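Repro case for the chain-ordering regression, as requested:
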Amino acid sequence: MNCPCGLAKTYEDCCGVFHRGDAEAPSAELLMRSRYSAFAMKNGEYLRETTDPQTTHLFDHEAQDKWAEQATFSRLEILKAVENGNKATVEFKAHYRMDDQDHVHHEVSKFRQQAGSWYFRQGAEVKS
Ligand SMILES: [Zn+2]
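-- result from build under test --
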């Protein structure tokens, strides 16, 4: 089975490495992929651990867990990933199914690297 993030690797060799804590995601794009996989696998703890300590208070983590609980994540599309020093931006579309309907969540996420670790900082939904 391919990893939920869409890379042609098994979950164990891909995002599983980061979820288990064997290594940290070496780029913002891989952190983004591992966070998508965490949503797909309903791993709210990983989502909290990889949110920037500076912005984590802005998020409703319970609502996030509930969304992950109710949605079935089918596919991640990375549209653009740009790293600039310790900052990065990743634009993506997350395809998921909820309430018997297909949904697409299109977002531009900002990331920050601190002491070698990448963190999700904030996201802005792109309305199409
Ligand atoms: Zn993966």
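Ordering looks correct now. DSSP finds four helices and four strands in the chain.
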